[in-house]
Amino acid sequence: MFSTLSAYAGDPILTLQLAYRDDPRPEKINLSIGLYYDNEGNIPRLESVQRAQKVVNASTAPCTYLPMSGSPAYCKAVQGIVFGEHSEAVGSGRVATIQTVGGSGALKVGSDLLRKFFPNSSARISSPTWDNHRAIFEGAGFSVETYPYFDPVTQRLDFAAMSAYFRTLAAETIVLLHPCCHNPTGADLSHAQWDEIVQIVAERKLLPFLDMAYQGLGEGFDQDAYLVRALVRAGQSFLVANSFSKIFSLYGERCGGLSMVCADADEASRALGQMQQAVRRNYSSPPAYGGHVVETVLLDPQLRPMWEAEVNAMRERIQAMRTQLHRGLVQHHPAYDWDFLMAQSGMFSYAPALAPHMHELIERFGVYIIESGRICVAGLNTSNVDRVAQAFAAVLK
Ligand code: LMR
């Protein structure tokens, strides 16, 4: 019956994670998947999250189905963090938000919905981007092309090429944008550059779909959401997928959100209905437990600042590791220009020069990076960073 099934080549990130897990070497270092490790090399359980879990675990409320759109309190909390606490768009009821199965679930629901109502549109993703972006939009039935983003020669954002390309796009083209901590490059737009993109979006009547999986890990919660707020100010309609996996260290609970910013409240109520239908057809309703934990943290006046401080500490540790990696690389391979690392932000760095050496890095040094040359800086700590610098220097010499 199933003899015609072809073999799955595997996923460049998740399949490598299994190889890392099965590697018996104690000195192995995981810089592949986007996981935040603390300085002791552990994936932390945040204190604010543990306290919220105690509250949720103590509840004797029945574990019934959530609505298709998820927990209302969770959706309110998503709107607060993504759009800001005093957002005009939220206040006027023109934002429809649902709880989703991680950020990927939000992208899937959003792309299915868009395919139904914009069947003639096509999608544009940055070159490079997170591999699953193409898969999800193609899976929804869109044709997907890339827009220029990262210049491998300068190892920096190529804003001139990106903006020029956007000026050529047809109306209603879906443009997938990373508001902060670009995955995989860590090369982000400045606020002034985002303003220019917002202007082009308005002029060309483009349809932005934002993927914000790292809010708080770039410059701060509000700074990282600059693009969201700028599009709202400009009166644009758009979608934003957000994820709490990294910033709550709750990867396995799959907590995300999808928001659609509409022209008015009437349009938003129809957007909500269409998102609910897309959810029902995909997985019926989201799981409850992780969402209750997240909403407990975000809506509690004591836990919320505790959590924000924990995320701020994560961000600062990542920045410190980036600086130490840069210092180590300059020391071990001074002939190479490593300054691009310091221009990157968030969980990742991107060094395409390392891409051909991925297997050697794994086999000789036990250092796992993604085949594109993406490095998860959040996997570095004070005990392993120099070993990583030496390994990178060794393969490039
Ligand atoms: C990553 O980019 O490593 C993470 O977003 C995990 C994933 O699902 O790929």
Please, what is the CATH homologous superfamily of the largest domain? Type I PLP-dependent aspartate aminotransferase-like (Major domain)
Could you tell me the CATH topology label of the largest domain.
Aspartate Aminotransferase, domain 2
The hetero molecules present are: (2S)-2-hydroxybutanedioic acid
Number of helices: 15
Q: Proportion of β residues?
A: 5-15%
- List the secondary-structure elements in sequence, H or E: HEHHHEHEHEEEHEHEHHEEHHHEHEEH
Total domain count: 2
Identify low-pLDDT runs: none
Choose one word for the global shape: globular
Rg from Cα: 21 Å
- Mean pLDDT comes to 97
Range of helix content: 40-55%
Biggest β-sheet strands, sense, barrel: 7 strands, mixed
CATH domain class of the largest domain: Alpha Beta
Provide the spatial order of strands within the biggest beta sheet.
2-10-9-8-7-3-4
Q: What are the SSEs and their pairings?
A:
Elements: H1 14-22, E1 29-30, H2 47-58, H3 72-83, H4 88-91, E2 95-101, H5 102-117, E3 123-127, H6 131-139, E4 144-148, E5 150-151, E6 156-157, H7 159-166, E7 174-177, H8 191-204, E8 207-212, H9 221-224, H10 226-233, E9 238-243, E10 255-261, H11 265-282, H12 289-299, H13 303-332, E11 348-350, H14 358-365, E12 367-368, E13 374-376, H15 385-396
Parallel strand pairs: 1-12, 3-4, 3-7, 7-8, 8-9
Antiparallel strand pairs: 2-10, 5-6, 9-10, 11-13
Explain what this protein looks like in three dimensions.
By secondary structure, this protein is an alpha/beta fold. It has 2 domains: 14-45 and 305-396, Alpha-Beta Complex (Aspartate Aminotransferase, domain 1); 53-301, Type I PLP-dependent aspartate aminotransferase-like (Major domain) (Aspartate Aminotransferase, domain 2, 3-Layer(aba) Sandwich), CATH 3.40.640.10. Helix content is 44%, strand content 14%. The chain is built from 15 helices and 13 strands. The chain has helices at residues 14-22, 47-58, 72-83, 88-91, 102-117, 131-139, 159-166, 191-204, 221-224, 226-233, 265-282, 289-299, 303-332, 358-365, 385-396, and strands at residues 29-30, 95-101, 123-127, 144-148, 150-151, 156-157, 174-177, 207-212, 238-243, 255-261, 348-350, 367-368, 374-376. The strands form 4 sheets. Strands 2-10-9-8-7-3-4 form a 7-stranded mixed β-sheet. It has a two-stranded parallel ribbon with strand order 1-12. A two-stranded antiparallel sheet has the order 5-6. Strand 7 (174-177), helix 8 and strand 8 (207-212) form a beta-alpha-beta unit. Helix 13 (303-332) crosses helix 15. The chain is globular and about 60 Å long. The N and C termini lie far apart (52 Å). The structure holds (2S)-2-hydroxybutanedioic acid.
